[in-house]
Structures are given as structure tokens and as C-alpha cells.
Amino acid sequence: MLDFTSALYLGFRHASQDLPGWEQLTLGKPAALEPVPQSDQVEQDLAELIGCERALLATSTLHLFWDLFTVLARRRVNIFLDAGSYPIARWGVERAASLRVAVQTFRAHDVAALRRALEVGRGGRPVIVADGYCPGCGKLAPLTEYVEAARKHGGLVVIDDSQALGIFGVRDQCSPYGRGGGGSVRRAGLNRDQPVVVGASLAKAFGAPLAVLAGSARLVREFESQSATRVHCSPPSAAAVAAAWRALLLNRCRGDSLRLKLFQLVARFRGGLARLGLSSSGGFFPVQTLRLPARLVTEQIHQKLRSSGVSAVLHRAGGDGSSALSFIITARHAAQDIDQALAHLAEAVAQSTPKRLERSNTSCFTDRIMAQDA
After folding, report:
1. Which of 34, 47, 128, 273 is buried deepest, with most CB atoms within 10 A?
2. Whole-structure pTM over 0.85, yes or no?
């Protein structure tokens, strides 16, 4: 099976024999009492990579954003939420709203709408919340403008950088994604003096199941002292921390070459789609969502691909509940994998039944495919 469903963008797998050893998987105590061995070094390396004064590990972005917005809620703030933000950051915002923090949503990446909202906002310093990169629209957030707006009003920008970390980095003419893999803050050229805090999962590009909070030393200390999950929940395991350490080492040694290979594979996929008369959203990011002709049934294309040995991601798209089909490309794919997948896609499109003949059974077919992939 050709697998195009994994978000391990750089292809890091971290087999047990490749990791440094550990004496015990967990210390049996919360991070507030004692850090997991090796976590201090990983945190220092991540702070340097992302471009912030300090970083702190967390079990997941769910733990991280739950605590972060609880901490921010204790300040006198108003939250301005980019409508394109990922659900986990939204759940953190909902936590703040439950603590009576005012929340206002503005259209995704609409700087003018944000500025208008900030001008009429009253009662607290603004906290602007956004994803560093939006796979749905294929664009980086306008972070420079968000930071400028936050500074003008004495506020803060909170970035969910789970998609961008490990892919984007410092701009460079020879590196399409940028150098280093530090994420959207590095890509935007922001320095550590800017009012920015980053929350990101390392489970995608870096393949390590844990998260990081990065920002000013003062904010990270505040988070560290007030975090409830660092007291009541288990910290990242020794294995997860070891995987993060190895991922950062590999990123320093091979990251830029892997990112270049990944870009070339994505470009090959998009070029192949064009030759088939098809296209995709996502720019040159590894997540490529097909724009299929309206006459085609997305679920049918997905099933035909599976039958021919190609696994892609069938998912909901937009607020209307319609289906979409995405290919996730990683640095472990080869050029021949891309070509083979495109050939099978061409066959699936050619053999598909026009949508008008599927009206009577589309609903049950959709439910069956969705259940199969659940």
C-alpha cells in the first residue's frame, strides 16, 4: 500500500534502537516536582530553533493550550481569534471564555478586520490567536502584521505552530521552505523581543509525541509556576523526550536537505496533477487537498484508490459537511511513489461514475467510507 496519510513530514520514525536509553519510562511524579531527564537540553535547543528566549516541554498541545489560556485569563485581556485556527487552540480559547474572557473571531488572515476589531475593543489587552500556517488555505499567517497590531495595543500574539515547525524556517533563496525548520516565527523574521508565544506539537515534522511552549522568559516562568497540568497530569515520557532530542539532532544534520527533497516531491505531485487537468490546494506544503471536478464523487475516488493500493485521507471540508481528499507527502516517499499514485488517481477519475448517477446512494456510501476510515 502506498501510504499518503502520515503527517511525519520529514520521515523521522525514531525506532527504539535509535534512541538513547533511559532508566525508567516515567518518574511517577509530575513535571512540577522534577523534570524528565534530558528535557532541559531539549528545551534549550527548541528555544534556539524557534527563536525565543525560553521553551518548556508539555505532554501535548491540548495540555499546553488549556493551561496557557487559563494563565492568560488571569490577566485583563480580550482574545481575538483568527477564524482559521485549529480546534485545539480553539479549545484553549473556549476555556478562557468560560472564565469570562471576552472572545471575538475575525476572518482568517484578514488584517484589516483585526485592526477594526482592536480599535473598538475595550477593557483589556488584546491576545491575538492564530495558526502559523493554515493547511486548509495553503498560506502562512500574516504574523508581522499581527505582531504590529498587538504591540500597538500592548498585547500578545499566540501562535499554534504545529504544522510549520520543522518545515518553514529562515528565508533563503536556495531553500524554498527556508533554513533550519524553526517554524513561522523564523519565516516571518521576528526576533525574541517581539510579543509572541508559540505552542507547537513535535509529533508532525519531528515525529516526537510531545509539545513545546516557547516565548519570553517571563511568560514561560509564569506558565511554569501556574500550570495545572504540570501538577495534575503526567509529563512527557522519557521515550518521547529522547525522540525529540534525536529529531533535533537529525534536523541539524539533515533537516535542510530533507526539506528540499520534500519540496521537490510536492512540486512533482502538483506538476503531475496539472498534466491530468487537476489541481490541489495547499501551495507547496506537504498536505495537498485535491480540487476534484464537481461531477465526481470524492468518496468513490477514495475507494478506487484504496482498491488500487493507494491510501489517502478522506475528510470533511468546510462547514457544509462535504468531503475532501488529501495526499500527505513525506520525505520518505520516492519520485516513483508520486508517479504511481498519480497514475492510479488518473485511472480512478477515468473510471468514476458521474455524480448525477450516484444521487440515490451517495449518503449511505459516504457513511460507509467514513466509518471505514474512523
Report:
1. 128
2. yes
